[in-house]
Amino acid sequence: MHGRVKVRTTAEQQEAKRKEREKKLKTYQAIHAKIFEKRANKEYDDEILELTEKILTSDPDVTTLWNIRREAIEQRDNSEHVTIAKHERRLTETCLGVNPKSYCAWLHRKWIMMTYANEKEEWDEEIRLCDVFLKYDERNFHCWDYRRFVVSKAGIESEKEFEFSMKKIMDNISNYSGWHYRSKLLPLVHPDPENKERPAESALVKEYELVQNAVFTDPYDQSAWFYHRWLLGRVESPLIISCVLAEKNDNDLLVHVSLTKPVDVFSVVLTIDGVECPVEWTSSASFIWQARVDAKTAKEIIVRAEFSAKQEIAVTFTSDEETLGYGLCDSLQLFRRKKTQSADAVLTSELESCQQLLELEPGNKWTLLTLVFLMEAIDPIGHKDTIVAHLVDLISVVDPCRKGYYQDLKSRFVIERVVESIFRNFRNPILDLKDHGLSRLYHMHHVSFVTELDVSNNCLSSLSGCQHLLNLSVLIADKNQIAEISSSLARLSRLVRLSLNHNKISSIESLSGLKGMKLGYLSLCHNPLRSIEDVKTVLRTRFPLLTLEL
Hints:
Blueprint: H1 11-40, H2 46-56, H3 63-74, H4 81-98, H5 103-116, H6 120-136, H7 141-154, H8 158-171, H9 176-189, H10 201-217, H11 222-232, E1 241-248, E2 253-259, E3 269-272, E4 275-277, E5 282-285, E6 288-293, E7 300-306, E8 310-316, E9 324-328, H12 331-334, H13 341-360, H14 365-378, H15 384-398, H16 403-424, E10 430-432, E11 452-454, E12 474-476, E13 497-499, E14 521-523, H17 535-542, E15 547-549
Parallel strand pairs: 10-11, 11-12, 12-13, 13-14, 14-15
Antiparallel strand pairs: 1-2, 1-9, 2-6, 3-4, 3-7, 5-6, 7-8
């Protein structure tokens, strides 16, 4: 151990220790063998309890021995259960003294209480036990979990536990378990009148003040910052329809509906040319739902829903020659969260406080990241350049060890702003995402109507997400890190042109995802694949109808 003087031992002392260890091992093995012999013979007497106790008091993490002990207890007469329960509580307390984070000991104690505890005094004693162990280690999550169990059984008021969480946080603001417990209690103590699972807005204001004091006390402690992010997440994004795509086939009409959130049950009203149509909706992804209707000559399709609010999106065909139509929601509804004026004022105040803190602690990653989330919640368009600049700082200077996480955040933010722009000023179904340093493709299901997508000169390692672009005919993904084509692209029945120049495709098998697609043109220039002997011949054999560029 650090700070301790190393004591040299003689060969004689080492030999004595070796012999002592061997003696202990033989004793352990003998007891262990005796326990299993008695279990095999179903001898659940006092001796098997004594033997298991001998081992568990020195090594409380042997799950099998606790199970054997439970088997033995269950075989005892009901008249003994009160005495046994008291003894088991003393035993587990002793074992927890050896290892306060023993899963097995906490679980056994929970089983004893669930099975044999009847009196309120017994549950009160458990609360006192939790107080003791949390005094030893205030971040012992095993004890916090056990405390939640005891509180639920003992009928202790949430308000009292809420005060307890404050006490533990005041003792140590780094107590992550205390902050987490507080997050579970807040909606119970201060429920939102409209949604009991969420905390009231007035309570959130007070919690922001508490967190602000904590982060100014220690700006580098992550516990309070995580709680702050949880508070930010309490502002709910509405569930709405983002896009309706209607596709006419030779035999029927296929309607695709994209949502801003995934749902398990999809219930909307579909009206075609003024007549309500009962249809069966299916989903391959819980935020995209489809229905087939025998209405290939339809002129107007209207989808009505009532999720967060009443909504109606219409798709109109102006001529019989049109086979594809789409309707979009208001751009401001896509990625914005519902906020009241008072909530907006609180977030603005938080933003100003974080900006002050950044001046005091320049380069603090938690402050920078929280600024990003606050700006995004308040006005993502107005703060767009600052948000991107902060994320670039986090990626390249402040916290490069986690650059993948920040790159994903930046990718999501940039794509959201581009998609909002398309919804706001729709002119043509082309999505241009080149030169943004994207690491992933987000929200592609919202733009299932686009015909062309350009994601050139990014940091993409896959084209995951593109399978939702049902109307796509041209995909340009040059200068990325793509090494393989997923079979999910086979869903793109309209895709005819694919460009993958300057990527990392190194084998013919990496292109197996193209099998069955109706591509007319494929460009693979400047890929490691070019070094394979007779690669052009092999590819033309596999894809005979394809115009190929290497």
